[in-house]
Design brief:
The complex is a heterodimer of chains A (377) and B (528). Chain A has 377 residues and is an alpha+beta fold. In chain A, 26% of the residues lie in helices and 17% in strands. In chain A, 49% of the residues are buried. In chain B, the strands form 6 sheets. In chain B, strands 17-19-18-21-16-20 form a 6-stranded mixed β-sheet. In chain B, strands 3-2-1-5-6 form a 5-stranded parallel β-sheet, sandwiched between helices. A 3-stranded parallel β-sheet of chain B has the order 9-10-11, with no helix packed on it. In chain B, a hairpin with a 4-residue loop joins strand 12 and strand 13. Classes of the chains: A alpha+beta (377), B alpha/beta (528).
Chain lengths: 377, 528
């Protein structure tokens, strides 16, 4: 036995805290054990078995995500057996579904047939919608799995596209269960679960109905955690690729929670929103408005120029004209009727800096304290 | 919030009242649901509707609309009677306990049941639960404040929290969930008629002098200004001649809309600065187009007082400008030169004149926001308020008696109406209604009604119904729902098409000036 509360990983000793798993210790020490089903802060399920490691004295490989670290354990995270097991697991996953990334290296004709079938099913000429943003693809590349080892299985369940936000593509679902964990243990909306058994297994909502007819509230947590192309934002699917996007971190514009989010921008357009992981106050979670309610930014109804009322209707005007008019009229009314004849409504929607200036303008320029906003409404 | 969002998950008891948390603050509701589902936290929900969060509750207490002071006093009564109060907290940190005790005396659970409809035994058990917890967190929202006795309601919740010593500790607090991204910041920054930024009173000569020096002006007004709910009537009477409205849409959000519209139309001059041509902007003399959150730099302060960065991600359309640039241009044209290099320069000025923001700058909040008060650059921020002292030294109990809401149901208007939001829309809908997806999920207004009332009035799910109050009438679709309780209907206020606020009562809380949007009397009849 080694030192108390110490394990050895790949020849190095590491201390651990009670209740930490092998995966926890490894990650804390920057040792990369691959996972697919593991979702931080939820109960480990060990479903995908991708995190298997070799532990001296154990009868079989153990899953790092669900095995508590124990004093004296000697662990190998990339031994030949481990690598071969992971490759085999990946072969199985790749052969069961439409994983049409270029990783798949079935022989010439088969490969073409496979691609054509998948693209025909989806009515597209492109590769998988999450190509380049897929943990399964990354691991297939890392372990050089090709999907050629086993015959491809046909798609059992059709794609669900009937809701406005999320495409559920069961052909790319690897049943890791992260979406279920996210729905039941992170957001606690309890809308989805595992249904059916064996080769018929499927992630279902409310007795296998579409999301829109279930308890789903479209928070999109399931999309954010899906490691493959099984759950994809409908508006982003085939519209934008991650390497074309810039991510800008900001604060959500809806309620007062102040969720931290990334705006994914492609060609000066927001194409997707995701939560910032591991950061308060929301730790990656968002709601339907924060995640999917960004259409207004690019709406054709946005005001683009100042408007001035003339003969009862509003017409476009230059900034010079509009600002002069505002300053003149406010000045006139102030001198004619007094400062308190003017009221300012500032906004719970604009920034602190802007509210501060509205406060300064009202008090120092208009010389009234009649400023308020909709805190009461 | 006196405490942080994160603490919700670590507390022993959560008391939610007047907050439809899962629809209006979905991400906060997850903290509650996790605490209850996977931890040992107990949950009490007091709400007139059987909202989703009540499915997670140990107790759902259903009070009659506008009877909050009564049930809170009832809990206080039970706690004192059973000697469950935190006497050392009361002795050391508070004043006015004897008066509270006296007032609470008559609020026996049976008397409270008569007023509120909450079964006496449930009230007793919920009170015990909250009082005996090591830490208890109260979460509330507009269901508590939008009443003619809204201020009384909030003070009563503070009484309850102080009585049990649930303030100034981790997991405790009286926590309002703020409904707009920067409503906290708008208050912090002096967007109120009585205070400058950092809640420095305009009636305080020292504060005035300080601001005059900082701003290089003289004669700052010393009289408290008008609240929004006073400006509108004064526009109607002609005392207010001009309004400059930035990013607000009172023609959907205000109570008694028919009156509000007449008032706005009576103005000599109306300037509206917004991102869309809202219902209010359509009446303006000048409309100024502004950038939206995704197009600008700055900060928002969230409901837990955390000041966080906002960053520009896309270019704005057309010629739109940032709100602060527009304000500077108008000020300069009115003879007060105002210019800043960028929003960061404005924050530098804010931190100089605002003690609670003294230590806030962009470099410090680049990765993670800071909670104010944060008086200097070394200060780590203040996640929990009132740890050692209350802002004003000792916490004051306010002995408050129950008084009924301004309008009661009667033979002519036999049903109560309460209003609120739904998950898929936001406030007046000027943003969310631009999203096909959100509109698909929640396309139109509705009248949520119980099975019993639907039967009583011969209404079926999906039929159109006229809803009439003493102030107006709208037509909307009937939605028979288990969320509704007999005698009370609910209508979301988002939809200008059938605006709930044509029905609501503009009666105000005498202190806060908040309108009683949560209670009025209506009648229903099948639409022609």
């Amino acid at each position: 036995m080694g030192k108390p509360n110490t394990i050895t990983i790949n020849g190095h000793e590491f201390e651990f805290e009670p209740h930490q798993t092998i995966l926890d210790v490894a990650r804390r020490n920057s040792i990369d054990i691959p996972t697919l089903c593991h979702l931080k802060h939820t109960t480990p399920t060990g479903a995908c078995r991708m995190c298997v490691v070799e532990v001296e004295g154990a009868r079989s490989l153990l899953v790092a995500c669900a095995t508590p670290a124990a004093t004296g354990m000697v662990i190998y995270t990339e031994s030949p057996t481990v690598i071969e097991t992971r490759r085999m697991l990946l072969e199985l996953l790749l052969s069961s579904g439409n994983h049409n990334c270029a990783i798949c290296q079935t022989s010439g004709d088969d490969w073409t047939q496979f691609q054509l079938r998948v693209q025909q099913e989806e009515d597209t000429t492109e590769l998988c919608p999450v190509w380049g943003d897929c943990q399964l693809q990354d691991l297939a590349f890392r372990y050089q799995a090709t999907g050629a080892k086993f015959p491809a299985t046909p798609t059992r369940y059709p794609m669900e596209t009937v809701n406005p936000f999320i495409v559920r593509d069961f052909s790319r679902c690897i049943q890791c269960g992260r979406c279920v964990q996210a729905c039941t243990e992170v957001q606690v909306n309890n809308a989805i679960s595992f249904g059916y058994r064996g080769s018929r297994a499927k992630i279902i909502a409310a007795g296998d109905r579409p999301y829109r007819d279930s308890d789903c509230v479209f928070c999109g947590e399931c999309v954010q955690v899906c490691p493959t192309g099984a759950l994809v934002e409908k508006d982003t699917r085939y519209q934008s690729r991650p390497w074309e996007e810039q991510k800008v971190r900001t604060t959500c514009t809806y309620c007062g929670v102040g969720c931290q989010l990334y705006l994914h921008v492609n060609d000066n357009k927001i194409v997707k929103v995701s939560g910032v992981p591991d950061m308060p106050p929301n730790y990656g979670s968002l709601c339907v408005k924060g995640r999917f309610g960004y259409d207004f930014v690019n709406s054709s109804h946005r005001l683009q120029t100042p408007l001035i009322r003339e003969n009862g209707s509003l017409r476009e005007a230059s900034w010079e004209e509009a600002l002069d008019l505002v300053a003149n009229r406010l000045g006139q009314i102030k001198s004619e009727y007094g400062s308190d004849s003017i009221g300012v409504l500032t906004s719970a929607r604009i920034s602190n800096e802007e509210n501060y200036l509205a406060n300064k303008f009202t008090r120092a320029v208009l010389k009234t304290n009649s400023i308020d906003h909709c805190a009461r409404l | 919030m006196t405490n942080t969002i994160g603490e919700i998950e670590k507390t022993d008891v959560i008391l939610i009242t007047g907050s439809n948390t899962t629809e209006n603050h979905p991400v906060i509701s997850s903290f509650v649901k996790r605490a209850v589902s996977f931890g040992d936290t107990k949950l009490v929900v007091v709400d007139p509707r059987r909202i989703t969060i009540s499915d997670f509750a140990d107790f759902w207490l259903r009070q009659n609309l506008g009877t909050d002071v009564a049930w809170i006093n009832g809990m206080i009564h039970v706690i004192i009677k059973e000697n469950l109060q935190d006497q050392s907290f009361i002795d050391q940190r508070t004043q006015g306990y004897e008066e509270l005790k006296q007032t609470a005396e008559k609020y026996t659970p049976e008397y409270v049941e008569e007023i509120t409809g909450i079964p006496a035994q449930s009230l007793i058990e919920a009170a015990r639960l909250y009082a005996t917890a090591k830490a208890g967190s109260i979460l509330y929202c507009m269901g508590i404040t939008q009443h003619t006795h809204g201020t009384d309601n909030v003070k009563s919740l503070a009484n309850l929290a102080m009585l049990c010593g649930h303030l100034g500790i981790e997991g405790g607090g009286v926590n309002p969930l703020r409904g707009q991204n920067n409503v906290q910041g708008a208050c912090d920054m002096g967007g109120l008629p009585n205070v400058y930024s950092g809640y420095q009173a305009v009636t305080d000569e020292g504060a005035r002098k300080k601001m005059e020096t900082a701003w290089g002006v003289t004669d700052l007004p010393d009289k408290i200004g008008l609240k929004v709910t006073e400006m509108i009537p004064k526009a109607h009477s002609g005392d207010v001649k001009a309004m400059y409205i930035i990013g607000e849409n009172p023609l959907v959000s205000d109570p008694d809309l028919n009156h509000a519209e007449a008032s706005i139309k009576n103005l000599d001059f109306l300037v509206v600065q917004d991102i869309f041509l809202t219902e209010t902007a359509q009446l303006a003399d000048v409309v100024l187009p502004a950038k939206c959150f995704a197009e600008k730099e700055g900060t928002f302060s969230n409901t837990e007082r955390r000041v966080q960065r906002v960053r520009a991600a896309v270019d704005a359309p057309g010629q739109v400008k940032e709100d602060w640039e527009i304000i500077c241009e108008i000020a300069s044209r009115m003879g007060y030169p105002m210019s800043y290099e960028n929003s960061e320069a404005i924050m530098a000025e804010i931190s100089q004149v605002t003690p609670s923001y003294g230590g806030i700058n962009y470099a410090r909040i680049e990765q993670q926001g800071l909670h104010w008060p944060c008086p200097n650059e070394e200060h780590p921020g203040t996640p929990i308020l009132h740890v050692d002292l209350f802002t004003s030294g000792k916490g004051t109990f306010h002995a408050i008696d129950f008084a009924p809401p301004a309008e009661a149901a009667d033979d002519d208007y036999p049903l109560y109406l309460t209003t609120g939001r739904v998950l898929y829309q936001y406030h007046t809908g000027s943003m969310t209604m631009k999203s096909e997806g959100l509109n698909d999920r929640s396309p139109e207004s509705f009248v949520e009604i119980s099975f019993q009332d639907a039967g009583k009035y011969g209404l079926e799910d999906g039929t159109m119904v006229d809803v009439t109050s003493r102030r107006g009438s709208i037509t909307a679709r009937v939605k028979v729902s288990t969320k509704a309780v007999p005698g009370t209907v609910f209508i979301p206020f988002h939809y200008a098409q059938s605006a709930a606020n044509k029905l609501t009562n503009a009666a105000l809380d005498p202190i806060s000036g908040i309108p009683e949007l949560k209670v009025c009397a209506v009648k229903l009849s099948k639409a022609a």
